[in-house]
Amino acid sequence: MSDLFLGRVIKSGKPTSEKYYLNKLDLTTHIFICGSTGSGKTVLGKCLIEEALRNQIPAVVIDLKGDLSSLKVPLYDLSENEVSDFVEGHSEEDQKEKIKKNLSEFKFMLNGSGLDVKDIQDFRNRTNIKIFTPKSRVYDQFSISFLTSPPANFEELMRSEPETVLNHISNQASVIFKRLFGELSAGAMNEEKTLIESAILHLYKTGADLEGKSGVVSLIKAIYDVPFERIGMLKVREFISDERKMVLIRRLNTLLVGADSLWYDGESIDSIMNSLVSAEKNPGDKTNLYIFNLSMLDNFDDRNLVLSNIAVTLFNYMKKLGDSREPRAVFYIDEIGGGKLSFFPDDPIQNESKSSINLLLRQGRAFGLGCILATQNPGDIDYRGLTNCNTWFIGKLLTKADRDKVIQGISATAYFLESYESFVKTAAGGDFIAKTKEGSIVAFKERWLLTFHKVLTYGDLVKLKKNLLFADDIMVGANLLAKKEYSAAIPYFHNVLLKDPESQKALGLTGECYFALGSHKEAVAFFDRAVKTGQGDYSHARAFYFMGEVARSAGNKDKALEFYQRSVKIDPEYADSYFGIADVYHGASKNPEALQNVQKYVVLRPAADNGYRLMASIYIALQDYLAADNSIKKALSHLKNADLKYSYKFMEARINYYLGQNAHSLELLEEAKAIAKQSSISSYECDYLASLIFMRFKEYERAVASLETVIAANPSDEQAMASLAELYYQIKNFEKLSETLERLKKVDPENASIYAYKARMLMDAGKTEDALKLVSSPAEGRPGADKLLAVKGLIYNSIGKKEEALASFIKAVEYNPRSLEALYMLSKTYESGKEYEKQRDVLLKAIDCQAEEKFYYDLGLCYEKLNQYALALEAFSRLYLSVLSDPEINLKKAEWHRKTNNIAKAHECADLFIKARPRSLEGYLVKGETYTLERKYEEAIEEYYKAEKVSAEDPRLWLSRAFTYKEMGDFVKAEDCENMARQSKSN
Hints:
By secondary structure, the protein is of the alpha/beta class.
């Protein structure tokens, strides 16, 4: 069972993030809403109706002004054309501006309520909203009866509550009488009114059908030929003369002709009500909302008549359904007050509406019928009747009299009085205080509606009906599209296109169906037609997005990018196109541009996991692993598709591997493998990554076991076998290496790794000529030639042929620009030749291929030799794992920070080095020289004393002291220290 989401809890006068829910069962104990104009009373009532419908509870709504009928305005994707007919402007430009402003506010407020367009679409797809109008065909006309048939439990009511039946009959007679003779004549014609009441009671007792025109005919017949002898103690002729009877009959006959005859046209209320509640509730069923629009009835008596008919017919219908503890239907009136012209007036005033509403309040609960009554005039309604409403929502009330009347009616506790008085002083529009049947008191800010809110005029209703001419086919088709029943949806859209070939929505949705079915040529044709029809009820931005998707699936990335960019130019808030742009740029390695667009996507779709997943991938490419880790965590937190959980978790493990968080990465890999096992999917890539981590830890047996698991899962995995060979070579287990190469040979006898590792073993054994012959024997153009050329370069290096080695490495890189081994060896060759600019360029290429720490380490030292200390620090900032095992990194960083005048960081890094190596004097020397730059000479000398305790004979100590004394201006001591340095060197 779901509760009803109405808004956000208010605390200390401000809305919080805590959502306010009303128990669904509270509907059956009835709800009363009161608040002055601008309080948000009508919006709250509509929220309750929306929530009831979302919970498959149908509703009957009495619309007195036309604002409740706007529930039917067909919002779907919040495009401008959906509301263009219902937003007015002084000019076309003014109208367009207002439409944009309204939709922008709608989207912002909807998002602020924790809702989105998907909720609107779900609501629209799952509701069947109908508008009924009396005496008019502006919408679906319904017929009204001046008389209602007897309640289903008539005899029981006459025994237990005869006043309910008799008051109802009296009210019907009053309505008819006032219509026939006017209110002023009623007092002088008591006999005629009593005769009508007696005739109706007799017809009730006989179970006559009194609905519609036939009911009036039955009443005329009963008065013309009275079927009972007496009225009270008097015979009928003694009570009223035949002449007066004939006058009454002639007047009753006028109800059958002229304008009053229009009351009987259309579907009967009884027929309408019989379809309100579905016999069985299935997840895909639509829930009914029947709106009775009475806004075109100017006469209160007419409204009174219609309202009482609807209420009594609804009661009789619910009674037939039997008892229910669950809410089965909701009845809502937005305004029950208004003095004498009130539908629920205070005593002693009685009318047919009041008796009908009381019937629903007192007995509707037993059948699962809940009432929602609202007013902005709390001073003149029947509070005794409202005691049946156990939930009260009170908004802003402008006058003290109204506030006092509410307090009087609510039977308030002292606690409520205190909360109420405090609240009404600061209440803003949309703020309400709730008192539930349990007695709890909560203040809340109502949520934003899922529907359009506007008073619909006669002209608006005409436009709405015209707009929805094909809405049933569109809605059914859209519903099938949402269910992914694409082939079934297409005929409904084609039906619309047969009647209106330029229906933009039908064209666009047909295109979406063909796109989903993989018929991309047909899809593009329909999207193109949708765009060429001009602005309508299908977004051009959406059409261009799908055209971009078609182009991307065909491999035409440039064309896809063009379509996506046209999409966001038309609608800067069309999120999916930003995702497409980001994905195309990422695929083209234009990652800064990709990042900009995916950031726009996640702003517009903050709960979309795919945006954060793509963002993580982009950050990996940009080598910003902390940001990548944060992004993939967000992706996992928003993930709804369980099928993607494994790939997301594996990516998180991979990112932590890059961060050097190896233990945590292993934990994540275990989680990923558990997910894969549960989903019956392969997880060998987890074992492959685990092998790399174990190699970092020098846990070679576990690394071997992981690689063997990969090979067992895929015996032809040449990459895993080559990695296993590399592992055995590193640990110098040549027996296992040879076995692995034999296994690899069975899969691919020409695999380059076989020749490469055999050649390296020969080289290590001093057989360089044999090694050179082996790597030179395969054709150079074969796959893996870069590996052989890299090994060839190593062999040349080992025998001192530097130029030949360099040529081999260059050739390897030319053959495969992403050969990491060749790039690394080439960088080392340039380093040995002191060609640091070339070394830098090669290392940057290697990093672009794969951001390994050894590349960053060498790059930092390379920048040091180029005196580019800021860049050296940037390179070393990428060393996550190495810095834990090599304290010298912090020493280097301390020196570089000192040279870039970042004194605080220099001290910080030096302290980290000293903590790891307290018996090494280098850290103390760096700190001493850093203090010298700060002119903190005493602290510098103190650091040198610490270094002297480690090694007094090291010339570096005396040179550092000499530097400090020179800065102090003590050149004698500086010279002494320099002499000590020379003496230490000579010793």
